[in-house]
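Writing this down once: the sequence line spells out the residues, with the fold written below as integer tokens. I am pasting one below:
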Amino acid sequence: MANHGRLFGLTVGFLLLCLASTAALAQNSPTYTQWGRNISIGANEKAGDLTCMGCSIRVRGQVAGDVTTVGGSITIEDQGQVAGDVTSVAGNVRLGNSVKVSGDVTVVAGTLRREPGASVAGDVTSMDGRGWFVLILLTPIIVLGLLVAALVWLVQRMRRPPVTAAAA
């Protein structure tokens, strides 16, 4: 029983150490999540993950995590650096000269403009045009509609009385 108490104490101590180190990293590289408010990281600023819904992100400094927008654009310029992935859904991405992205760059339902001096270490995926966004939104709605129609058809079929042959 004494071993269980010691193991519990070590586990709690390890968890507290992990939480403290995470808090210390968060202070050095703050994470930003915005709804409808643009995010701008200046040339001498550092940040963690950047997430923006219905707004845009502009990076001139260093980002230690990922940069993600839905319904907004991403602009990385002036030797900006991103250690993670850059993802934009229904928005554009522009990578200026001397920009370094260590992860992947993905653009869905938008355009990617990449200067010749921009460096991307991972994969670059671009599905240009707004048609992709419509397709992504409509596909689940169409599938759900077909499932409801099939269910209604099955219920109506089960409720019909059996047809018997008339005696001649």
